[in-house]
Structure formats: structure tokens, C-alpha cells
Here is the input.
Amino acid sequence: MLSAKHISASYGQRKILHDVAFHAKGGAVTAIVGPNGSGKSTLLKAVTGEIDHTGVVTLNGVDIDTAKPWELAAMRGVLPQATPLAFPFTVSEVVRLGLASGISAARHELVQHALDRVGLVTYGARFYQELSGGEQQRVQLARVLAQVWDPVGHGKPRWLFLDEPVSALDIGHQLQVMQIARDYADAGGGVVAVMHDLNLTAMFADQVALISEGRVVAQAAPNAVFTNENLSAAYHCTLRVNAAPDSGTFLLPHLARRAG
Amino acid sequence: MTMTMEMHAASQAVDRSARANALTLWLIGLLAVACITSLAVGASGASLWNALWESLQGNTLSVRDRVVLWDIRLPRTIMAALVGAALAFSGAAMQGLFRNPLADPGLIGVSAGAGFGAIAAIVLGGFLPASLAALVGPHLVPFAAFAGSWISTIILYRVSTRKGRTSIATMLLAGIALGALTGAVSGLLVYIADDAQLRSLTFWGMGSVAGATWSKLSVAGPLIVLSFCAMPLIAKGLNGLALGEAAASHMGVDVQRVKNTAILAVALAVGAAVAVSGGIGFVGIVVPHLLRLAVGPDHRYLLRNSALLGASLLIFADVISRIVIAPAELPIGIITAVIGGPFFLWILLRQRGLLDL
Here is the structure.
């Protein structure tokens, strides 16, 4: 269980999050959506302890602000939006960095498994810096997967925190990565993902938190949050939610037109 | 082209750690060769082999052989090894900490502070009260250099640390400011220095291990060796830092502890090394760079391999400095710069545009 209460965060004088409450549970994919600058990534950084914030965040009952880095690393992996790399590490060396942190340190075979999972198993000997942006993002996902490979540990869910995990990917790899998240949750792990693509969110998420101007407007199942009114108000444009013809999920926008 | 070679090597062996371990053994062998060479070569005709033979037969050594081998060449060899290891290890650690292959210990203020301390001691040493001067005696310059390196590192650390977090970017900028300031004051001291002092200053700046004695070694040696204890404590953390501070923290690295340990170790190693040997350049940049090209940037191997290669290189540089214009000696800093500068340029030209420097 991830529980965040009364979260406020600022960059300098500018307040980004205003007394936000957010929660997620193991076995589910929880998406954070909202327009640019609404505070999605800031919320993710607050609940992973990356930035200073007020309020209390607990992960599996542990207060993340007092926990040691290695205690948190054993519970959750975090995929940032972009990861610069300082030195010429190979792909498999980058993934192995994820292993070094603890729970799976001795399991070298996980490097191959994780690369296989993101479809890069033949890339191990290549240099990270030579890969395309999308490939680098998948290597980073493999690194994070290697860190928390087993979705459940000691009867408690492990967690993936993903900041726009599909932003640099083509449609095929978007689906691949979202399926990885889905499978992780189905196996008992928790997934919290910042998302831009509302269709993918509707397809893969169990819970959606809609953020607008630093506040959580709604948090519930996608079909409860994704209403014409909610989305149009949050994104400041006219959006219409439709039922998908075959699967019961829905596609949007049917009609996107700037308001006013 | 270097990159292509490296890629080829990497595709042959995905796991470069095995090669890095093998390289460690080779470097230990190289260090042994370097030590023997250094003990065997010198301006005096003392022969290492002859002395060893005599000792094995139970004969006592001649006074001259004992002095040359035991009191001159051996401490000098150990000093060169320790200083070279300290500089190369510190360079690798700083590059990992600053996430930049061109970083060197100067960035945390060690060199500027040490230089300032040494210059102040050389120029103003005469104004010390006689009792104090008698106490520190010939160790005034090393002591002042060591103190200077620590004072400037502490100032930089305090300036760049807020709420228990050290900002590496602030440290870099503050280091430039502090460097300019100490440079200006040093310039002022140089301006008022007399000719003899100017000569001392110049030679100090070029570096040398010629003055190595057991007593200097007994002070600087343990400090440098102590700094090596930091290697296993920071290696994994520096690897994590290659992905940035946030990612490192998420992978379980206590980032602030890695920074503190690395800065402390480098201040210790370089402060002691510079104090006893003056300014010796290039070792800290060239050695880690070469090793990264050869076996990759994993700090678990890079730190110790850098120390080993740095030790051997400085011993060989010292041997060259002894024989190139024998019986006179060149300052070792000249040798490392003459070899290191063009070599480094050559590496950069080979890989320009291929590696993101």
C-alpha cells in the first residue's frame, strides 16, 4: 500500500502541489494523468522521496522520509523520465547497476531476463550511449525491473514507479512496456505511472488520479474519472469520451477542439 | 576508432569485470617491475643485485650501499608509488563524483589550498617565531600544504552543503572562486618573494619525490594508505551516481555518504601527496581515462586499478627523472607533463566525436 497525505511541494517560491492525497495498492496499476505542468512528475518525485515535501508518505507501512535508501531500494524501483549516463557503460552493465543495490545482487541471470523482458536481449554488449532514446528508456526499465524483479517479497508488494515510461516509444513498444507494467501488477506488485496517453491509461490502468493545477481532481477507476466534464476541465479543451466498439474500454478524444 | 575497438572488445566479452580482474593481476606485476627498476637505477653506482647477493651470503652491506638503497632509493620508491596511487585513485574518485571524465582533485580545492599553503610557508616561513620554526623545522612546507588543502576543502564543503546535502555544481563553482582568490594571494606572495624563495616555489610547483625520507614517509604514508580504505565504500555508489543522484538514491545508494567519504578520502590522499611531492599533474586524469578505455568505467575495478597503474607510472617517471640528465635530476612533474600531455591529446583526438566528453 502506498499512502500519501497532505502532500505539498514547491520549487523555490512556486508551489506545485497543494495538500494532495494519493494512494495506490499492490496488484494494481495506478496512473497519474493531467496536463503539462499540473504536478504529475512532482507528485511522483514526492512519493518516491526525491524532493522535499510536507505531509507523510508511507510505502508498505514504512515512512519513506525516514527510511534508508537501501530499505526503499529493496521495495521499489523508480524509472525517471530521462537518464543521462556519465561514462561509457554497456547495456548489460547499466542493467547490472540495478542489481547492485541489494535484494537481487547475486542474481546475475536477472540481467538477461530483464533485457529479454524489454526486447533487448541481444543488446547487452552494446554501448548505452549509442542507443536511440527509446532503446535507452527500455534499458532503464530493464534496470529498474532487475532491481525489483519479484513483484512480491516477504508477502508484501514491490513497486514500480514510472515517470512517463512510454514517452519516447513507438506504439508497439508503448504496448509492450504497458503490458510489462500490467503483468507486474497482475503478479501482485504495485505500479504507479505518470502517463500522458489517456487511451493507454484507459486500457491498462486500474486506478487513475487526475491532477490539475497541483490538486488531485479525482482518483478512481478510469471509467469514473474519464468523463467529458473532468477531462475538458482539466485539459482546458473539449474532449469526448467514447466506448470502444470491441472491448468495452474506451477511446478518446473523439473530438478534440480548443475551447473558446 | 578507440570506441570501435572498445565496442569490438565489449562484444567479445559482455562481462568486462573478468578482464578488469585479470588486469589487476597484470598491474600488480607491473608495479613489482617498477619497484625493482627504481631500486636498481640511480646516479650512484650502488648495485641492487650486488647488495642482495651480499645479504644472502650473510655479509653486511657497505655503508654506501646501505645508505643509497635503504635510506634513499627505497623510501623514494615507496613515496613515488604512494603519491602516484593517491593521485590516480583520487582522480578516478573525483571523476565519478563529478560525473565528468575531466574532473580532478583540484575541483574540491585540494590543489589550490595546498599550493597556497606551500607558497605561504616558503615566503613567510622566515617570520615564524624561532621556537615554532625549530619545532616544525624542514617539515614546514609539507605541513602548510597539507593544512592549506584541508582548509580550502572544508570551506568549499561548507559553502556547497545545505540541509545536509552537498551540491556538486555549487562545489564546482565555489572551487573556481576560491581558486581565483588563493591564486591572487599566492601571486602577491610570489611578488614579494626573494630570488631563493622564487626558485623554491618554482621547483615545488613542478613536483618531486627526490626529498623522500623515512620520516616524511611515516607521516604521509599512513594518510594515503588510509584513504585507500574508502575504495570499497564508494565504488558501488560512484557506479550508481553515473546515472545521476536521484537514480543512485533510488537504487539504494546513500548519496550523501558517498560524497562525504569520497571528498574525505581525496582530501586525505591528495593533501598528503601534494604536501610531500608538490604539484604533479596528469596522473589523475590520464590513468583513470586509460583504464576506462581498457576495461570500462566500473568503479569497483577502476579505483584499485587506477591506484596500481598510477603507482607504477610515477615510479617510472621518477626513474626517468633520475637518469635523463644524470647525475642531475629533472622535477618529476615535468616528466609526467611531457609524457601525459601529448598522450592525452592523442587519446582525445582519436575518440573526438565518438565519446561524449
